[in-house]
Specification:
Radius of gyration: 55 Å
CATH architecture of the largest domain: Orthogonal Bundle
Distance between the termini: 20 Å
Number of strands: 0
Length: 244
Protein backbone atom coordinates (compact mmCIF):
# COMPACT_ATOMS: atom_id res chain seq x y z
CA UNK A 1 0.00 0.00 0.00
CA UNK A 2 1.35 3.41 -0.98
CA UNK A 3 1.83 6.23 1.52
CA UNK A 4 -0.96 8.25 -0.12
CA UNK A 5 -3.42 5.40 0.36
CA UNK A 6 -2.25 4.77 3.89
CA UNK A 7 -2.65 8.44 4.81
CA UNK A 8 -6.18 8.55 3.40
CA UNK A 9 -7.15 5.42 5.33
CA UNK A 10 -5.71 6.72 8.58
CA UNK A 11 -7.51 10.07 8.16
CA UNK A 12 -10.82 8.41 7.45
CA UNK A 13 -10.37 6.01 10.37
CA UNK A 14 -10.18 9.07 12.64
CA UNK A 15 -13.29 10.58 11.02
CA UNK A 16 -11.35 13.58 9.82
CA UNK A 17 -11.76 15.53 6.58
CA UNK A 18 -8.86 16.85 4.56
CA UNK A 19 -9.64 20.30 5.99
CA UNK A 20 -9.50 18.96 9.57
CA UNK A 21 -6.15 17.31 8.97
CA UNK A 22 -4.78 20.42 7.27
CA UNK A 23 -5.72 22.57 10.28
CA UNK A 24 -4.02 20.17 12.72
CA UNK A 25 -0.83 20.15 10.62
CA UNK A 26 -1.00 23.87 9.89
CA UNK A 27 -1.07 23.33 6.13
CA UNK A 28 -3.61 23.98 3.40
CA UNK A 29 -6.29 21.52 2.37
CA UNK A 30 -4.74 21.45 -1.10
CA UNK A 31 -1.47 20.22 0.42
CA UNK A 32 -3.24 17.31 2.11
CA UNK A 33 -5.05 16.58 -1.15
CA UNK A 34 -1.74 16.42 -3.02
CA UNK A 35 -0.36 14.02 -0.41
CA UNK A 36 -3.34 11.72 -0.77
CA UNK A 37 -3.28 11.90 -4.59
CA UNK A 38 0.39 10.92 -4.53
CA UNK A 39 1.46 14.20 -6.16
CA UNK A 40 3.78 15.20 -3.32
CA UNK A 41 5.00 13.80 -0.02
CA UNK A 42 5.30 15.61 3.30
CA UNK A 43 8.66 16.59 4.71
CA UNK A 44 10.17 14.84 7.70
CA UNK A 45 8.68 17.24 10.24
CA UNK A 46 5.18 16.72 8.89
CA UNK A 47 5.76 12.95 8.82
CA UNK A 48 6.68 13.05 12.50
CA UNK A 49 3.55 15.06 13.26
CA UNK A 50 1.44 12.56 11.27
CA UNK A 51 2.92 9.61 13.17
CA UNK A 52 2.10 11.26 16.49
CA UNK A 53 -1.36 12.28 15.34
CA UNK A 54 -2.31 8.79 14.17
CA UNK A 55 -0.33 7.12 16.99
CA UNK A 56 1.76 4.90 14.76
CA UNK A 57 5.51 4.63 14.34
CA UNK A 58 7.28 6.59 11.68
CA UNK A 59 8.52 3.40 10.08
CA UNK A 60 5.04 1.98 9.92
CA UNK A 61 3.79 5.19 8.37
CA UNK A 62 6.52 5.55 5.76
CA UNK A 63 7.36 1.92 4.96
CA UNK A 64 5.66 0.54 1.90
CA UNK A 65 3.19 -2.10 3.03
CA UNK A 66 4.07 -4.11 -0.07
CA UNK A 67 7.19 -5.12 1.79
CA UNK A 68 5.12 -6.73 4.53
CA UNK A 69 2.98 -8.32 1.84
CA UNK A 70 6.05 -9.94 0.32
CA UNK A 71 7.10 -11.13 3.77
CA UNK A 72 3.63 -12.59 4.22
CA UNK A 73 3.86 -14.24 0.81
CA UNK A 74 7.26 -15.63 1.78
CA UNK A 75 5.86 -17.04 5.01
CA UNK A 76 2.91 -18.52 3.15
CA UNK A 77 5.28 -20.00 0.61
CA UNK A 78 7.31 -21.53 3.46
CA UNK A 79 4.16 -23.02 4.98
CA UNK A 80 3.17 -24.43 1.61
CA UNK A 81 6.61 -25.96 1.15
CA UNK A 82 6.39 -27.44 4.63
CA UNK A 83 2.99 -28.91 3.80
CA UNK A 84 4.45 -30.40 0.64
CA UNK A 85 7.23 -31.99 2.69
CA UNK A 86 4.68 -33.46 5.13
CA UNK A 87 2.56 -34.80 2.28
CA UNK A 88 5.62 -36.34 0.60
CA UNK A 89 6.74 -37.94 3.87
CA UNK A 90 3.31 -39.46 4.43
CA UNK A 91 3.35 -40.73 0.85
CA UNK A 92 6.82 -42.27 1.32
CA UNK A 93 5.82 -43.91 4.62
CA UNK A 94 2.75 -45.42 2.97
CA UNK A 95 4.85 -46.64 0.07
CA UNK A 96 7.43 -48.26 2.36
CA UNK A 97 4.77 -49.97 4.48
CA UNK A 98 2.94 -51.26 1.41
CA UNK A 99 6.20 -52.56 -0.11
CA UNK A 100 7.09 -54.35 3.13
CA UNK A 101 3.66 -55.96 3.46
CA UNK A 102 3.57 -56.93 -0.21
CA UNK A 103 7.04 -58.41 0.20
CA UNK A 104 5.90 -60.44 3.21
CA UNK A 105 2.88 -61.66 1.25
CA UNK A 106 5.04 -62.64 -1.73
CA UNK A 107 7.59 -64.47 0.44
CA UNK A 108 4.92 -66.35 2.35
CA UNK A 109 3.08 -67.23 -0.84
CA UNK A 110 6.25 -68.60 -2.44
CA UNK A 111 7.08 -70.56 0.73
CA UNK A 112 3.57 -72.00 0.74
CA UNK A 113 3.94 -73.05 -2.90
CA UNK A 114 7.26 -74.72 -2.15
CA UNK A 115 5.70 -76.47 0.85
CA UNK A 116 2.87 -77.71 -1.34
CA UNK A 117 5.26 -79.01 -3.99
CA UNK A 118 7.43 -80.73 -1.40
CA UNK A 119 4.37 -82.19 0.31
CA UNK A 120 3.03 -83.48 -2.99
CA UNK A 121 6.40 -84.98 -3.96
CA UNK A 122 6.72 -86.68 -0.58
CA UNK A 123 3.17 -87.98 -0.74
CA UNK A 124 3.63 -89.23 -4.29
CA UNK A 125 6.95 -90.92 -3.41
CA UNK A 126 5.37 -92.59 -0.40
CA UNK A 127 2.37 -93.70 -2.44
CA UNK A 128 4.61 -95.11 -5.17
CA UNK A 129 6.71 -96.88 -2.57
CA UNK A 130 3.60 -98.42 -1.01
CA UNK A 131 2.30 -99.51 -4.41
CA UNK A 132 5.57 -101.16 -5.40
CA UNK A 133 5.77 -102.94 -2.04
CA UNK A 134 2.15 -104.11 -2.45
CA UNK A 135 2.81 -105.45 -5.93
CA UNK A 136 5.89 -107.33 -4.70
CA UNK A 137 3.80 -108.83 -1.94
CA UNK A 138 1.13 -109.86 -4.49
CA UNK A 139 3.78 -111.67 -6.54
CA UNK A 140 4.98 -113.45 -3.39
CA UNK A 141 1.39 -114.39 -2.51
CA UNK A 142 0.83 -115.77 -6.02
CA UNK A 143 3.91 -117.99 -5.61
CA UNK A 144 2.75 -119.12 -2.16
CA UNK A 145 -0.76 -119.81 -3.48
CA UNK A 146 0.68 -121.84 -6.30
CA UNK A 147 2.70 -123.91 -3.86
CA UNK A 148 -0.23 -124.34 -1.48
CA UNK A 149 -2.59 -125.39 -4.27
CA UNK A 150 0.02 -127.84 -5.47
CA UNK A 151 0.28 -129.27 -1.96
CA UNK A 152 -3.49 -129.42 -1.72
CA UNK A 153 -3.75 -131.29 -5.03
CA UNK A 154 -1.15 -133.76 -3.84
CA UNK A 155 -3.04 -134.34 -0.61
CA UNK A 156 -6.33 -134.67 -2.47
CA UNK A 157 -4.76 -137.28 -4.77
CA UNK A 158 -3.28 -139.13 -1.82
CA UNK A 159 -6.61 -139.04 -0.01
CA UNK A 160 -8.48 -140.34 -3.02
CA UNK A 161 -5.97 -143.17 -3.48
CA UNK A 162 -6.66 -144.63 -0.05
CA UNK A 163 -8.48 -147.94 -0.18
CA UNK A 164 -11.65 -147.89 1.83
CA UNK A 165 -11.75 -150.59 4.49
CA UNK A 166 -8.04 -150.80 5.08
CA UNK A 167 -6.83 -150.77 8.66
CA UNK A 168 -5.39 -147.25 8.49
CA UNK A 169 -7.94 -145.75 6.12
CA UNK A 170 -9.82 -143.74 8.75
CA UNK A 171 -6.76 -142.27 10.46
CA UNK A 172 -5.07 -141.38 7.17
CA UNK A 173 -8.25 -139.88 5.79
CA UNK A 174 -8.66 -137.74 8.90
CA UNK A 175 -5.03 -136.60 8.77
CA UNK A 176 -5.19 -135.71 5.11
CA UNK A 177 -8.53 -133.92 5.62
CA UNK A 178 -7.02 -131.80 8.43
CA UNK A 179 -3.99 -130.93 6.34
CA UNK A 180 -6.19 -130.02 3.41
CA UNK A 181 -8.31 -127.84 5.72
CA UNK A 182 -5.21 -126.05 6.99
CA UNK A 183 -4.11 -125.44 3.44
CA UNK A 184 -7.58 -124.08 2.57
CA UNK A 185 -7.36 -121.64 5.50
CA UNK A 186 -3.92 -120.42 4.37
CA UNK A 187 -5.12 -120.11 0.78
CA UNK A 188 -8.19 -118.16 1.89
CA UNK A 189 -6.11 -115.76 4.02
CA UNK A 190 -3.63 -115.20 1.20
CA UNK A 191 -6.43 -114.61 -1.30
CA UNK A 192 -7.98 -112.06 1.07
CA UNK A 193 -4.65 -110.28 1.55
CA UNK A 194 -4.06 -110.30 -2.21
CA UNK A 195 -7.48 -108.77 -2.89
CA UNK A 196 -6.87 -106.03 -0.34
CA UNK A 197 -3.52 -105.16 -1.88
CA UNK A 198 -4.82 -105.21 -5.45
CA UNK A 199 -7.94 -103.18 -4.67
CA UNK A 200 -6.22 -100.67 -2.40
CA UNK A 201 -6.33 -96.95 -3.39
CA UNK A 202 -2.82 -95.62 -4.04
CA UNK A 203 -3.97 -92.16 -5.14
CA UNK A 204 -2.01 -89.25 -3.62
CA UNK A 205 -4.19 -87.38 -1.13
CA UNK A 206 -2.94 -84.38 0.81
CA UNK A 207 -4.22 -81.20 2.40
CA UNK A 208 -2.04 -78.43 0.98
CA UNK A 209 -1.40 -75.04 2.52
CA UNK A 210 -3.38 -72.57 0.45
CA UNK A 211 -1.04 -69.85 -0.87
CA UNK A 212 -4.03 -67.65 -1.69
CA UNK A 213 -4.53 -67.01 2.03
CA UNK A 214 -1.36 -64.93 1.98
CA UNK A 215 -2.72 -62.66 -0.76
CA UNK A 216 -4.31 -60.68 2.09
CA UNK A 217 -0.91 -59.07 2.57
CA UNK A 218 -1.20 -57.65 -0.93
CA UNK A 219 -4.61 -56.17 -0.15
CA UNK A 220 -3.40 -54.74 3.16
CA UNK A 221 -0.33 -53.24 1.52
CA UNK A 222 -2.30 -51.77 -1.36
CA UNK A 223 -4.96 -50.46 1.04
CA UNK A 224 -2.46 -48.70 3.28
CA UNK A 225 -0.64 -47.29 0.27
CA UNK A 226 -3.80 -45.89 -1.31
CA UNK A 227 -5.14 -44.59 2.01
CA UNK A 228 -1.98 -42.75 2.98
CA UNK A 229 -1.55 -41.43 -0.55
CA UNK A 230 -5.09 -40.01 -0.46
CA UNK A 231 -4.57 -38.57 3.02
CA UNK A 232 -1.38 -36.82 1.94
CA UNK A 233 -3.05 -35.50 -1.22
CA UNK A 234 -6.14 -34.24 0.66
CA UNK A 235 -3.97 -32.71 3.39
CA UNK A 236 -1.92 -30.83 0.82
CA UNK A 237 -4.96 -29.60 -1.11
CA UNK A 238 -6.80 -28.45 2.03
CA UNK A 239 -3.83 -26.59 3.47
CA UNK A 240 -3.03 -25.08 0.08
CA UNK A 241 -6.62 -23.89 -0.25
CA UNK A 242 -6.39 -22.25 3.18
CA UNK A 243 -3.22 -20.45 2.18
CA UNK A 244 -4.75 -19.19 -1.03
Amino acid sequence: MKFSEKLMNLRKSKGMSQEDLAIKLNVTRQTVSKWESDQTTPDMNKLIELSKLFEISLDELTNNIETSNSEKAYKESSVEKNNKKIAIRIFIVGLIISIILCGIGLIKQNNAKKTNEQFYNDAYALSLENYNAAMERVETINIELKNLNSQKDTLETEKNSLTMGSSNWFSETSRLANEIYDLDVKIMNLESEKNQLVNADYTVYYNPVKPITYLIFYYIGAGIFVTLALISLIYYLVTRKKIL
